[in-house]
Automatic annotation (TrEMBL):
Function: Involved in the endoplasmic reticulum-associated degradation (ERAD) pathway that targets misfolded glycoproteins for degradation in an N-glycan-dependent manner. May initiate ERAD by promoting the first mannose trimming step of ERAD substrates, from Man9GlcNAc2 to Man8GlcNAc2. Seems to recognize and bind to exposed hydrophobic regions in target proteins.
Keywords: Calcium, Endoplasmic reticulum, Glycoprotein, Glycosidase, Hydrolase, Metal-binding, Unfolded protein response
Keyword Metal-binding: yes
Protein name as it appears in the record: alpha-1,2-Mannosidase
Molecular function in Gene Ontology: calcium ion binding; mannosyl-oligosaccharide 1,2-alpha-mannosidase activity
Keyword flag Magnesium: no
Named cofactor requirement(s): Ca(2+)
Active-site annotation: 45 (proton donor), 186, 279 (proton donor), 300
UniProt source species: Colius striatus
EC number: 3.2.1.-
CC terms in the record's Gene Ontology section: endoplasmic reticulum quality control compartment; membrane
Organism lineage: Eukaryota, Metazoa, Chordata, Craniata, Vertebrata
A GO biological-process term: positive regulation of retrograde protein transport, ER to cytosol
Length: 503
């Protein structure tokens, strides 16, 4: 559990500027973490915390000044650890439907008596980490199983376009038929959007947009989202769960800012009522739900505030951040850390601190108030690295956070595969273009991709050209790099936000 906490909070150290501590922890992890242990582990949690945390730390290592091995980012000890952990999860996906079991034994695989019932989020929350792993290692098995699981959920949605909360991964029968955007479902929707942005995947985005229509039609009431029966659309639970507070941030990623702000303000009123978000909140009664009054310092509302502030610069979002800092400091701070609030009605504390407080809550708060953090890079700065497959551009921005707030650099996915012959031809054309630009002073803002989204440009020329533009222009210049570049025909992603044609 200590190693898990280290991995889960590692990239937070770098984002908060504690480079030396990041380096120290990486060195500790590089000595080896043993996954050959007789332990039953959550497939979902192991992926988002261990695999996601190791991938993020691997990709950020060079930026932090850690000495990386030749061939990085296509090789490295943290990448090998992430791959080893992910391989331990693969037996869970060996089901007739391709949907994984919820738990796997790291040494023996799936236990014979393992329940086949898994929550929707536990099935649909792999594409970000597993696709990244496949692209970095060259082994397609990880992305393949993640995609198969996503498509199985899509195939088994109801006639009105909704998915339930728990499903039998052997028979594909829905066991819990409550449909909503919160616990048990949440990160499935999140990964359709983030997977679409990360991989430039039209199919994943189309899935989400179809779900979004059904969610608006059947679960949305006065900018709240309730729980409904997945086949009938009738209300089953008129409650708001704190885990649902990620939704406004997700809406911002598809450009639905107005709806996102209205929903965010509803959630913010609950925060102001209690000094935090209770796990469950009864919307008609305007109060907490019995035995769900706790607040384990969850990050979701702060996460949404960060995304929305980047999109709108609305000072209301900074007010939430200020309230969160003051509330957490006043209510939950203890000598050795920050304690879970057991009951928001009287602010009694529990004797525990969740690792997601360090991995997510603190990170999103910091990023909300730090506009110059490298995570917010708009492409005006970048690094060029040499891999066995040629030159590669990294750290240009557009980071995709997994659901445990571990940032993945989308550009890294294009560093570790052989380029097609056509791309070399395009690179020659780009070099010629840059040469013309230097002599004729052409204005160049963006470069479109060729083929499967791999950038076709000479990083050396791009770097020198950017420098020239910066010196000769009083206005803020645009980088020659657009990272990640978009291959969507009907959508455009800018700085991590996807905008539809009609927005």
């Amino acid at each position: 559990s200590f190693s898990l906490t280290l991995i889960d909070a590692l990239d937070t150290l770098l984002i908060l500027g504690n480079v030396s501590e990041f380096q120290r922890v990486v060195n500790v992890l590089q000595e080896g973490v043993d996954f050959d242990i007789d332990v039953n582990a959550s497939v979902f949690e192991t992926n988002i915390r261990v695999v996601g945390g190791l991938l993020s730390a691997h990709l950020l290592s060079k930026k932090a000044g850690v000495e990386v091995e030749a061939g990085w980012p296509c090789s490295g000890p943290l990448l090998r650890m992430a791959e080893e952990a992910a391989r331990k999860l693969l037996p869970a996906f060996e089901t007739p439907t391709g949907m994984p079991y919820g738990t796997v034994n790291l040494l023996h695989g799936v236990n014979p008596g393992e329940t086949p019932v898994t929550c929707t989020a536990g099935i649909g929350t792999f594409i970000v980490e597993f696709a990244t792993l496949s692209h970095l290692t060259g082994d397609p098995v990880f992305e393949d199983v993640a995609r198969k699981a996503l498509k199985a959920l899509w195939k088994n949605r109801s006639d009105i376009g909704l998915v339930g909360n728990h499903i039998d991964v052997i028979t594909a029968k829905w066991v819990a038929q409550d449909a909503g955007i919160g616990a048990g479902v949440d990160s499935y929707f999140e990964y359709l959007v983030k997977g679409a942005i990360l991989l430039q995947d039209k199919e994943l985005m189309s899935m989400f947009l179809e779900y979004n229509k059904a969610i608006k039609n059947y679960t949305k009431f006065d900018d709240w989202y309730l729980w409904v029966q997945m086949y009938k659309g009738t209300v089953s639970m008129p409650v708001f769960q704190s885990l649902e507070a990620y939704w406004p941030g997700l809406q911002s990623l598809i450009g639905d800012i107005d709806n996102a702000m209205r929903t965010f303000l509803n959630y913010y009123t609950v925060w102001k009522q209690f000094g935090g978000l209770p796990e469950f909140y009864n919307i008609p009664q305007g109060y907490t739900v019995d035995k769900r009054e706790g607040y384990p310092l969850r990050p979701e509302l702060i996460e949404s505030a960060m995304y929305l502030y980047r999109a709108t610069r609305d000072p209301t979002l900074l007010e939430l951040g200020r309230d969160a800092v003051e509330s957490i400091e006043k209510i939950s701070r203890v000598d050795c850390g920050f304690a879970t609030i057991k009951d928001l009605r009287d602010h009694r504390l529990d004797n525990r601190m969740e690792s997601f407080f360090l991995a997510e809550t603190v990170k999103y708060l910091y990023l909300l108030f730090d506009p110059d953090n490298f995570i917010h890079n708009d492409g005006s700065a970048f690094d060029v690295v040499v891999t066995p497959y040629g030159e590669c551009v990294l750290n240009a921005g557009g980071y995709i956070f997994n659901t445990e707030a571990h940032p993945i650099d989308p550009a890294a996915l294009h560093c570790c595969r052989k380029r097609k012959e056509e791309q070399w031809e395009v690179e020659d054309l780009m070099r010629e273009f840059y040469s013309l630009k230097k002599t004729k002073k052409f204005t160049f803002k963006t470069a479109s991709n060729h083929g499967e989204g791999e950038g076709a440009r000479d990083p050396e020329d791009a770097s020198s050209e950017k420098g020239g533009e910066k010196k000769n222009s009083k206005k803020s210049s645009h980088s020659l790099l657009s990272c990640p570049s978009q291959s969507f025909n009907s959508k455009l992603a800018v700085l991590g936000q996807v905008f539809l044609d009609n927005t």
